[in-house]
Amino acid sequence: MVNGDGAHERTEEAESKQDGNSETDGGEESNEQEVIVIQDTGFTVKIQAPGTEPFDLQVSPQEMVQEIHQVLMDREDTCHRTCFSLQLDGNVLDNFAELKSIEGLQEGSLLKVVEEPYTVREARIHVRHIRDLLKSLDPSDAYNGVDCNSLSFLSIFTDGDLGDSGKRKKKGNELEQIDCTPPEHILPGSKDRPLVPLQPHNKDWKPMQCLKVLTMSGWNPPPGNRKMHGDLMYLYMVTVEERHVSITASTRGFYLNQSTTYTFNPKPSNPSFLSHSLVELLSQISPAFKKNFTALQKRRVQRHPFERIATPFQVYSWTAPQVDHAMDCVRAEDAYTSRLGYEEHIPGQTRDWNEELQTTRELPRKNLPERLLRERAIFKVHSDFAAAATRGAMAVIDGNVMAINPGEETRMQMFIWNNIFFSLGFDVRDHYRELGGDAAAHAAPTNDLNGVRAYGAVDVEGLYTLGTVVVDYRGYRVTAQSIIPGILEREQEQSVIYGSIDFGKTVVSHSKYLELLEKTSRPLKVQSHNVLNEKNETVELCSSVECKGIIGNDGRHYILDLLRTFPPDLNFLPVDGEELPLESRRQGFPRQHRHRLACLRQELIEAFVEHRYLLFMKMAALQLMQQKANKDAKNDVPAITETAETPSESNNGECKSPLEGKELEESIPGLAQAKELAETLVAEDGSCIDPKSREVVLNACKAVGSISNTSFDIRFNPDIFSPGVRFPDDSADDVQKQKQLLKDAAFFLVSCQIPSLVSDTPHGSNLKSYMCVFMTRLKTGVELSALSAAVSHFLNCFLSSFPDSVAHLPPDELVSRRKSRKRRNRVPGGGDNTAWASLTPNELWKNIASEAKSYYHFTIECESVDQVVEKYGLQKTTLLREISVKTGIQILIKEYNFDSRHKPAFTEEDILNIFPVVKHVNPKASDAFHFFQSGQAKVQQGFLKEGCELINEALNLFNNVYGAMHVEICACLRLLARLNYIMGDHPEALSNQQKAVLMSERVLGIEHPNTIQEYMHLSLYCFANGQLSTALKLLYRARYLMLLVSGENHPEMALLDSNIGLVLHGVMEYDLSLRFLENALTINTKYHGSRSLKVALSHHLVARVYESKAEFRSALQHEKEGYTIYKNQMGEAHEKTRESSEYLKYLTQQAVALQRTMNEIYKNGSNASITPLKFTAPSMASVLEQLNIINGIIFIPLSQKDLENLKAEVQRRQQLQELGKSEEPTEDRPLELEDKIPID
């Protein structure tokens, strides 16, 4: 285990039995065995569909028959069929059977596709599927944020698929054909930040019209006597040739009938063209349909699968073009039949979400196949639940759901829709009065969600949490939860058997809950403790008091209200009579916050415990050394000197410098051995150790605040400092220790974590966060009819330089005759609904400044947005993006003139939509993640081959659990591509990285910071593959996105510009190249200091371009700078210093030669004898070498044989993996798998 966290991590590993391969190789072996079982070799079957040639299909024994159905509904030649069965030797296969369970199904079997009679359900599914095929290239679903569609633009920059294009081009004359000029707006120093290029025009999207109208007919449903003729429903169509037809869907298929708009005549027309598929029918009556539909399907299947697979969670785009609103029967039907979730696929209408969520948790998990099945089920239900909860929350806020307590005031109302319970984020019944009222009620749901996430991750058998989703929409916060069976029938007082419903005044406990929560106590670092109840009796708890335990009617033990799972952050919680350390007080802590629910993040707790562990080891080791020294001095005094006690005062959380530990080790001889000894002491649990050593451990435990005296174990009591909680007198010591521990953790955050974070990030970003608070304030209480006007008015006040932004109250499109009595009760939290219209830029700015002061304790010393933009170097486009993304606004994509003083930048027509912002739990694929981590570890130790195998394995398992689309799969593909590249397989690297880019665009967003990085990696592999123009296009795209998202002033920009500069140098565009490289030099110097090795490398890159231009003086000047840095940082003897000095000599010789030639020319005029000078265009190899260096790629030589074996292995895996299907994006930053090996 790295990081010395070993001792207390090991027990967890053992408990969770999922140590796939963390410690021993033995574990790995057995796991390999299991994995192989899962991937039973695939086999091929023949499929014969009516009217097509039989074709081969590769299947795997684990697949269900249903999955073959899906494949057929997607294939170009069979996609128009939905209602069929598969038959083997005349026997119909069961849709839900696994292939391996079917008798007689083997390599080469022939499956027949047999058309089945329709039912109403099947006919609807067929129409829906045909509509999906007709819309398959239409991006409007992605813009509207429905059905898990999202945008991707990569193919525009790579001209289709990357794999083949590398081979087509001739290498010889490629240089002349490349147009390398970047668009004006991405050149270094350009102030222009256009929005339109964010969504380049995709020629594939121009609509190929197959039909003008496809809709349900007004003659539905068929009357009784027609039902008995087999009529299921009627459709109405208008073909491209303007032919109006009425169609009957019957049990036997589709045919034309004789009805018109106003007369009903269900008789078949002549000819009736009875066809089993709507497509076949339409192809017969409309030549344009036939032609366009065929072309459309061709184009559809040519797209990369990752461009069209649904994502697991909805991703919303904050910009969209004006999309034509076309007639669409399926969309209209969906909107009105309120299909809750997806009942048409599930018998028995609405889903019992709670039952589904809990049952999946109860699935067995003894071996890998079981765990995969369980995790896939958990993940699927979660993503469905998140989608349903989001729809419900929007319906609630839009006023389309009836409250379960309609008599109460609007903000107190609660709702149930589709078996999900919804409540609004207001302080109802003064529940949070002592904690900060509405502000606390707004913060509680996200804290609760973090608690649900944490308990879910520990995954204790028998302990259940509720499905929880928090949705922010139109300025309201809605919490959606699954419903505990029976809770609605009882009063809360009777059902709570553990915890407190009044923040600690009355408290109850329960032995079963204590037993279950005890299992979470160690991983979540929660200390079990005693509190007093209203009768002054001692009650034992193992969580915070508000955490309630309720046994549902299903007998399961649920815990809810987990908002204080993690200890409070004392920096924002002033407590009478308690003082923080002096250093914190100097920085102005503790600060008054608007609510008392500020708590530390789980990551911080982990980091703090880790820090303490290192401290503990160090102390034990130092004492052992002292004992040893004393023994050597033949003087056996027990070594409890003062040093043992001091750290808790001096070092209670500070870290002097990141090197502190290492320096210590180097300064004291023998410390390393002592440390090892200390580890053995700790590991053996303090039983069979001699008293002296036990004393050492005891002292070290005391010093770091461990709760045990024999081993390192830090846990927090979450109830310390909770108002209303009282502790028994006999635990006063404990409470005192816990208070100290909380102060130390708060101090650790301020003195250590934040400084180390700040040193890595540029300033100027602290402003963005205030803007959003307003949106919420503004939107709450705006009538729906004025929403776009209100949002555009707010954006004008905020971003436009136009001084007196006047709101356009909607010129009531429909003024009603009688001024109706104000229907007060409509909007939750209603009130004066036009208050927003009087907001002025000045007033908004005052609000923002006071908000910044009260919430962030940050003083903005500016009078207007223009001053802020000037002072902090912000960009209005970036602010617009931040605000839109955080509040869910979608705006029209066009160029906005923010700086005009004559007219406002936004009109209400520019606001296209408001989306929900959704937070939910992301269930993890634990086994896949273990494989992934071991793979990373192997790669870092230099075992690329083993690393590559493990990562491939992880990829298979991720696909198994998440489906084809997921943030973690994206990270996996990126690392795989990097390994392919390092091992010399460029085409494979390209293919994997292309998938990573597409996936990142789809699940994170087209301008997400991760996506920008994926673009950079892809351009490197393109360059290595000889696709220079593509490499440049990708880099230009990355730079454009980077400018839009964060502006030029960002440390990553230096890397991007070095990449662009190098590629331009390679294609001999020297002047352009210099612009980018010199900009990179400036940025590196700014962020890393002029003595950094990054700066030295930048100087060298610039010098090389000057050399190519034969400007030797400038080249020498830059190389000298670089040489000086290397010499000072690395010493004379280091190879970098020597390389630099060689290069200096070479440049000097060239300069002298040039000077000689020039003198010769001056002296002898035109008949001088000139020795030809060597001007070298850089070789591609040398450019690539520099690209690798700046991107932190280090090559490890492999023999040809190794490479061959590896390729074969990878191909085998790839084939197995092609059988994967699709699901979801995470919201917390996914495992940032930065596999870069740092250069600095």
TrEMBL record:
Residues 331-573 form the Clu domain. Pfam families: CLU, CLU_N, eIF3_p135, TPR_12. CDD domains: CLU-central. InterPro entries: CLU-central (IPR033646), CLU_dom (IPR025697), CLU_N (IPR028275), CLU_prot (IPR027523), GSKIP_dom_sf (IPR023231), TPR-like_helical_dom_sf (IPR011990). GO terms for biological process: intracellular distribution of mitochondria; mitochondrion organization. The keyword Repeat applies. It comes from the Eukaryota. The keyword Cytoplasm applies. It is found in: Cytoplasm; Cytoplasmic granule. One of its GO terms (molecular function) is mRNA binding. This is Clustered mitochondria protein homolog. It comes from Sander lucioperca. The gene is cluha.
